[in-house]
Amino acid sequence: MTAAQKRLATPNRAPGPRYLNPLKHFQESKRGGLKYPARLFEQYGPIVEIKTFPQSWFLINSPHAFRHIFIDNAKNYTKGKLFERLKIIGGNGLFFSDGDVWKKNRRIIGPYFKRGNMKHYVNAVVASGRKGVEYVDTKYADQEFDASELTHRIALYVVGRAFFGMEFSEQRLDRLLQAVKDSSRFGQSMLQSVVATPWLPTRVNRQGKQSLKVMYGTIDDLITEGLQREKGADLLSLLLESVKSGEMSRDHLKDEMWTIVNAGHETTATTMALMLYHIGKDPAWQAEVLAEIDEVLEGRDPTFADLSKLQKLDWTTKETLRLFPPAPGTARQAVEDDEIESYHVPAGSIVQTQFYFAHRDTRYWDKPEEFNPRRFATEETDNRPEYAYIPFGAGGRRCLGEHFAYMEALIVVAMLLQQYRVDIREDFEVEPYLAVALRLRNGVRVSLHKRS
Ligand code: HEM
């Protein structure tokens, strides 16, 4: 073979480092957090291949490639090895499963989350907003505190009301909140090593396993309570019908409800805390948002019809999800050899789509590091590539709870701001880090003061 023929026959590999020792990728990733992909994108461009053993890792920051992976050639990209590892915390629920199991359960659960169905949950969310105001009145007002602690509590309360048709007691909320935190840490540690070692007697592993016992024990109790009451309009009641008809096993129902508890509160809670952060940091914007809330709601609770009128709060939500997507990316594994933007992707490669970086890329955003909710009001939005903004993923595996999350964020934050003004110390900045989802190292330090 001539040198020219050889060149033609050699697949075009994406630029990126080669690590002979596969541990190196995990060490860099663990040590660097978000700085690791930032450095590689800076050095090699938007598609990076980390060539190592037993497979390559691709880091991807390209709307075009997102479309290829999630839509055009989605059948070649399964959730794969990383999600397989996370099954230790999430079982075979929708988020983690693939193939026929996923298809069947998405068909059962999907209709419940359609946009048109959201009006049925407004009352449950408004009741939770009231609970949130009560928490502030009794526990947090007029002192600096961590807003994410408040929003996690409210979001979990929402899960109880909307998806289980139950009011979670304070004790149950405490136990679940701690368990979710510990199991996330456990999950993250499963992702950060060449070989997952859940059997090692480390503190994270012990706490993680204990937290799973608490989670699954609680879900089991909730299912038993659900069976003992009359059928309601909540998700648990609906899925209990599938268990009774034999379409779903009780064990599988546990996995699905655990997925809903976890995916259904963490991400939205982080978003709501960060909305308060951005509003508190920008007094002029806060004044506009408060004026809009007062004008639309006229002092009463929000209704479904009000949501489309809370435009400034809606832009705040979108801009918050741009700067801090609580799912900063996701991963897939290539089933067969493929090509992404002319680069060869060997079968088995892990492909990590990095939404966080696409959302902050100067190719698509003007001054991307700035909080500017108005960018969602202008044609700037129309001129951007389709998947440059992708906080809820794309394609068949797009977030099931997207409409619910928007509704919840608008209602709860509007209800808090109806009552309170947000203050934030000038020197306080949030510090994001990764623990399966995006988390905030020192929370969101705010003070809330009753509006006169
Ligand atoms: C701001 C809030 C939220 C964000 C940013 C978010 C983000 C995401 C993303 C990016 C995915 C796709 C993951 C992938 O492709 O691998 C996803 C999937 C999913 N989300 Fe959300 N999510 C949010 C809220 C919710 C809520 C409130 C629920 C449930 C009540 C929920 C339930 C799910 C489920 C079940 C899946 C898996 C869907 C499937 O694979 O069929 N999410 N979410």
Structural description of this entry:
Helix content is 52%, strand content 10%. With 452 residues, the protein is an alpha+beta fold. It has a single domain (12-450), classed as Cytochrome P450 (Cytochrome p450, Orthogonal Bundle), CATH 1.10.630.10. α5 (80-90) runs antiparallel to α9, α7 packs antiparallel against α8 (147-164) and α13 (266-281) crosses α17. The chain starts with a helix and ends with a strand. The structure holds protoporphyrin IX containing FE (HEM).
Question: Can you give the mean pLDDT?
Answer: 91
Question: Main β-sheet, in a few words?
Answer: 5 strands, mixed
Label the overall shape: globular
Name the quaternary structure: single chain
CA radius of gyration: 23 Å
Short description:
This protein has 452 residues and is of the alpha+beta class.
Which SSEs are present, and which pair or pack?
Layout: H1 3-9, H2 23-32, H3 35-44, E1 47-50, E2 57-60, H4 63-72, E3 77-78, H5 80-90, H6 99-109, H7 122-140, E4 145-146, H8 147-164, H9 170-191, H10 203-228, H11 235-244, H12 250-263, H13 266-281, H14 283-297, H15 311-323, E5 330-334, E6 338-340, E7 343-345, E8 350-353, H16 355-358, H17 402-419, E9 420-423, E10 432-435, E11 437-440, E12 445-450
Parallel strand pairs: 2-8
Antiparallel strand pairs: 1-2, 3-5, 4-12, 5-8, 6-7, 9-12, 10-11
Bound molecules: protoporphyrin IX containing FE.
Which short descriptors sum up this protein?
alpha+beta; Cytochrome p450; 5-stranded mixed sheet; 3-stranded antiparallel sheet; 52% helix; globular
